């Protein structure tokens, strides 16, 4: 049988954590033959640590055959020791009256510390997924704080946007979600993201031709996907949790086990692809194989798409400029 791998999860007692840990432990992320050791991080606060213990009691009670070990941590360096995968879910939420700059600064502090801890303690091949918002910028901060690790091992979650877009396209076309191929989401995990179905196909037919409605694209589809998080909060009274955890599972599974040619969306540091400045952590269509990802090359960008990409890039660069002095 396979040797266990170490999976660190931060914010482990939060609502995404609760929807995520059981699926990792059951083998949905890394495969039904891959034992895992969970290294769980929460803030030192007594209530958070106690809640984490409760989640671990429930994990125990599942008697998962693949769960080879589990630890609670209140400090990043011990939580990330030798870890092969790190899912950075915990972040500082926007409190009442909190300015955007304060939010960026609070998260910059968390993600510089966690980036350094990964740099010092994690496996040299660690795969990092940042879920905590602002996810792209937090991933950028962690990457910049971990100079001894490969930059490309730091990624941000845009998979929820990707999956939301797939679901809207399935509803619009009346076709199964699984039949839709080659969707791309560009940019920031925020309402400015650009979900792009120009290359998407269903059973070989162009989704763009099937829908053939640019007004729907611009006035219905993009706002629906972009504002979906707010719509969930409005309906549920809480932010997306199970769907966010599901997207995190999808992202890590595909990165680790491959997509067999299928496109998925990951936020990854740019090497200048599609004119995005180097190091900006940007949502791109990628394929995964051999434990690595490749940005889909050579896609034509029309005027409307360029305008959308410029807008989401400008937002990301604004965030990045707002934290650069803190790095
Ligand atoms: P919760 O508030 O339920 O849980 C967050 C947990 O993180 C808390 O238990 C808190 O104690 C812990 N935490 C805070 N700072 C920490 C630190 N420095 N180290 C370790 N743990 C820490 O939030 P939840 O609903 O689970 O959401 C978590 C994050 O995901 C938020 O930042 C949220 O904005 C973000 N999201 C990102 C999404 C994406 O697609 N990228 C979608 C869903 C979600 O909104």
Automatic annotation (TrEMBL):
Gene3D superfamilies: Lactate dehydrogenase/glycoside hydrolase, family 4, C-terminal (3.90.110.10), NAD(P)-binding Rossmann-like Domain (3.40.50.720). It is an enzyme of class 1 (oxidoreductase). Residues 5-154 form the Lactate/malate dehydrogenase N-terminal domain. Residues 159-320 form the Lactate/malate dehydrogenase C-terminal domain. The active site is at residue 189. The keyword Transport does not apply. Substrate binds at residues 94, 100, 133, 164. Keywords: NAD, Oxidoreductase, Tricarboxylic acid cycle. Its EC number is 1.1.1.37. It catalyses: (S)-malate + NAD(+) = oxaloacetate + NADH + H(+). One of its GO terms (biological process) is malate metabolic process. NAD(+) binds at residues 11-17, 107, 114, 131-133. InterPro entries: L-lactate/malate_DH (IPR001557), Lactate/malate_DH_C (IPR022383), Lactate/malate_DH_N (IPR001236), Lactate_DH/Glyco_Ohase_4_C (IPR015955), Malate_DH_type2 (IPR010945), NAD(P)-bd_dom_sf (IPR036291). GO terms for molecular function: L-malate dehydrogenase (NAD+) activity. Catalyzes the reversible oxidation of malate to oxaloacetate. Belongs to the LDH/MDH superfamily. MDH type 2 family. This is Malate dehydrogenase.
């Amino acid at each position: 049988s396979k040797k266990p791998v170490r999976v660190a999860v931060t914010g482990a007692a939060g609502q995404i954590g609760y929807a995520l840990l059981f699926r990792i432990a059951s083998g949905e992320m890394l495969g039904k033959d891959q034992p895992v050791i969970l290294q769980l991080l929460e803030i030192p606060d007594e209530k958070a640590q106690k809640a984490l213990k409760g989640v671990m009691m429930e994990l125990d009670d599942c008697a998962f055959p693949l769960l080879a070990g589990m630890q609670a941590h209140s400090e990043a360096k011990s939580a990330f020791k030798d870890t092969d995968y790190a899912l950075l879910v915990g972040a500082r939420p926007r409190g009442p009256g909190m300015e955007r700059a304060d939010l960026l600064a609070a998260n910059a502090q968390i993600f510089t510390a966690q980036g350094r801890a990964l740099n010092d303690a994690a496996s040299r091949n660690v795969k990092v997924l940042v879920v905590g918002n602002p996810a792209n910028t937090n991933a950028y901060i962690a990457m910049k704080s971990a100079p001894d690790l490969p930059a490309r091992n730091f990624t941000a979650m845009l998979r929820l946007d990707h999956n939301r877009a797939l679901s809207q396209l399935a509803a619009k076309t009346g076709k199964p979600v699984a039949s839709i191929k080659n969707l791309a989401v560009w940019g920031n995990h925020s309402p400015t993201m650009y979900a792009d179905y120009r290359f998407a196909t269903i059973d070989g037919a162009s989704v763009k031709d099937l829908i053939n409605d640019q007004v729907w694209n611009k006035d219905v589809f993009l706002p629906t996907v972009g504002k979906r998080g707010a719509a969930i909060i409005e309906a549920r009274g809480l932010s997306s949790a199970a769907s966010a955890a599901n997207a995190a599972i999808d992202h890590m599974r595909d990165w680790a086990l491959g997509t067999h040619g299928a496109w998925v969306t990951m936020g990854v540091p740019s090497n200048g692809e599609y004119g995005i400045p180097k190091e900006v952590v940007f949502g791109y269509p990628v394929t995964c194989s051999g434990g690595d990802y490749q940005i889909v090359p050579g896609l034509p960008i029309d005027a409307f798409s360029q305008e959308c990409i410029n807008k989401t890039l400008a937002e990301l660069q604004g965030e990045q400029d707002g934290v650069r002095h803190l790095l």
